[in-house]
Amino acid sequence: MSISSILSEIAQGIEKAISDAASEVGQALSDAVGAASAVGSEISQDIENITNTLGCTVQGMKDSGYTYYPALGIVNRAIKNANINGKVEPVSNIFQLFRHGVVIESAEGNYYYVGGASPYWGAGKDFFALQGGACFFISDSSIPTLMRKANIIVVRLKRRKLTSAPWQQPNPPEGCSTPVIGWFETAAENSRDAGGVMPNYLPYYTSLPFHALKVPGILVGISGDKLSATALKESLKLTSDQPPVPFIVARTVGTPFQQKNPNAVINGMMAVAVLDSQLQEKLCNLFITQDDSICNSLSTVKGFSDALIGAPVFTAYSCLSGCKEPGIVGLVASATQLAGPVVSLVLVPLPTAYTDQAFEQLASALGVQDVFNESVRALGNAREVIISLQSTYHISQTLASAIVDHLDWNDREQMMTDAKPYVENYHKVVEAIRSLVEKSGEMFLVGRIQECVESTVDEDYETWLDEATDCVYSDVDRRSITY
């Protein structure tokens, strides 16, 4: 079956799903935009453009590397109960503890996570954004607690370069610009409803056995009176390097509306997602060709999950000159489950210019300026302490940066105090491995010692020694070596 015929089937399915739920969709969207017309019916009337733009989006996103991979946000420790709409709600499953988003590098060279936040985050110092196997993070005990007051956050992060995989960031959509009718064509496309794709990792986890989803359980344990999400974080990191699953989205046009977020009023746009597993599987099979099991898992998605908050929505315009490059049009800020498989989405647009100032303005608009400011301050502390460690202890920038990755970045003086044992253990680990290498007589390994020790920094001396030794001898038979 050709791509065009599959897209035609998907289009018919979208039209039917939206048509069946038209009155409910129309009411939900009308309430949001303050319009009197049945917007759901209008969407079904623009199905041709939705289909064309959906096809362009899928075509542009296929085999495109990490550009369209969403980020996954998670903290290392969480609280067991959260106050949600005035009611205390306990954690019962992993979907309450992670969110989707994007990681973007500004023109000034700073990394930002813009995406979902969970009301259960807090109790630790580390927040991680995992995208394409790459790890971005911030280590400040005040930040996870600040994050949980909003559903979309903007936070500056440090990239863990030694262990990070290749990474590419999403861009805004390309317009229909041509030398002759570019402005007219772009205006025409922007004034019509458009199909799009919401890449996400939800089916990777809804397809797991029930016991793997429970909290506490395999992926989230109990540490004192808090929850430890370290295993879930490691799982998300591995998953983030896999192809995301595409969900069908129709972005609607109309007057931007305002929504309370619970501590701010934000400008947003509307979209409709059609979470019909059969339609989704057809789209998925166009998108992911190397592993059928991923698309088969779509039947385990029973509706919208809070884990999808922050998920990016991409659109590619279908122009007279052909399909344009897909780009991100917004992040899912909230959702309402409507009739059947239809979900009404509120999208928060990202800045079209990726500058530090633009992200600061977005944070202010979202009411999360305090989170943003604290992250900027914490990153500043981390950078200053890296320089201080280099000059004080005459160590490399690589080692200083790796040590800082294990500290709480809240206070510079305390960071220097907490860093000292790491420096002392570094010298001990180097000497211990050097002695081992000399004893084994394999002196050609000496040149690997520093790199391996610097790349395996751990707060526990024995763990650090074991991992660094394994690194040095990774390609050598160690059966004859004795400690």
TrEMBL record:
This is Uncharacterized protein.
